[in-house]
UniProtKB/TrEMBL annotation:
Gene3D superfamilies: YbaK/aminoacyl-tRNA synthetase-associated domain. It is an enzyme of class 3 (hydrolase). InterPro entries: YbaK/aa-tRNA-synt-asso_dom_sf (IPR036754), YbaK/aa-tRNA-synth-assoc-dom (IPR007214). It comes from the Bacteria. Residues 24-143 form the YbaK/aminoacyl-tRNA synthetase-associated domain. This is Ala-tRNA(Pro) deacylase. Transmembrane segments: none annotated. Its EC number is 3.1.1.-.
Amino acid sequence: MLSPRLSNLLDQGQAPYTTLNHSRTITAHDTASVAHIEPEHFAKTVMIKADGRLCMVVMPAAYRADLHRLSLALGGATVELAEEAEFRGQFPDCEPGAMPPFGHLYGMPVYVDSRLAHQKMVAFNAGNHTEIVRMPYSEFERLAAPEMLWLAHMM
């Protein structure tokens, strides 16, 4: 079942989307594989701290966050990966590690790797480890209103 906040956002925003159930997975790359979605089209959410503030970084599953590049893109901020214990409570309607890529729903900025913008469709976790949402990237961008950055490098 979609996270309630995500469901609300998609319905109120009248966004076209489909959902897909899949066997339980933990990593974004495994989820993309099980769902038969190219890793470049599956958006994974990575939690970071930029100068101590929690932020959401969204990038293709085939990529890894480049913290140095991200620091430069954020004006020299001190950037580090956030520990699960630091953000688990921010997502009360989601399973740990399965939060959808809409930071504003949870009071935090969202940064998207610009390579996702070149995709016609994007898929992402629906708030749990057994369901994904697939929608046009343009609709995701309209609803998420992310800041576009070049954040990652190939794994």
